Amino acid sequence: MRKATISRNTAETEISVEIDLDGTGQYDNKTGVGFFDHMLDQLARHSLIDMTVRAKGDLHIDDHHTVEDTGIALGQALVQALGDKRGIRRYGHFALAMDDTQVSCALDLSARPFFVWNCDMPTPKIGTFDTELVREFFQALATHGGITLHIDRLHGFNSHHIAEAAFKSVARALRMAVEPDPRMGGVLPSTKGAL
Question: Among 62, 100, 105, 130, which is most buried by a count of CB atoms within 10 Å?
C-alpha cells in the first residue's frame, strides 16, 4: 500500500498529512488559508493522489509558515509513500493551458532536490494570499520530497490562473511519475541501483 501519514509540529505550525498514491483524487484539505486549500484540492484531484491535510498555523502573523510547512510535510509523505521507488515511472511532465495561461512542469523523483521557478506572478496578491507563497510551497515540496522540479510559465497575465495552472501542471506530472510502469516489472528506474 503506497500510503503515508506525516505529522509535523513546531512552535509555528501543527501539520498532519495523509496521502494515498493509488487513490482517485479525493481530498479534504483545511489549512485556514482559503486560496491555498483550493490549490491543494487541485493538486489532489489532478494527481489522483488522495490527500487529507490539516494545518494550524500562526496566521495572525501571515500565511508563510503554514504554506511552507505544509509543503515540507507533503514532501516527506511522498518520500514515505514511494518507498524504494521500484517499478515507478520516475519522470513526469505536463504543459497545462488555463485560459490566458500556460504553465509547464517537468520533474524527476530522483532523491536529488533541485528547484527551478520561472513562473513569476504579475500581482503581489490573489485576494489576501501572497503570490510569492506559491513558490515557497513548491520549494519546500521539492526539497523534502527529493524532487528535481522545474516549473515554467510560458505565458499568462492573470495571477490566479498562473498559480492554479502551476499546481495543476505539477499534479499531472506527479501523477505520471508516481504511477507504476507495467514494463518496469518492479525494477528500480535507475542504473545507480538506488534512488
Answer: 105
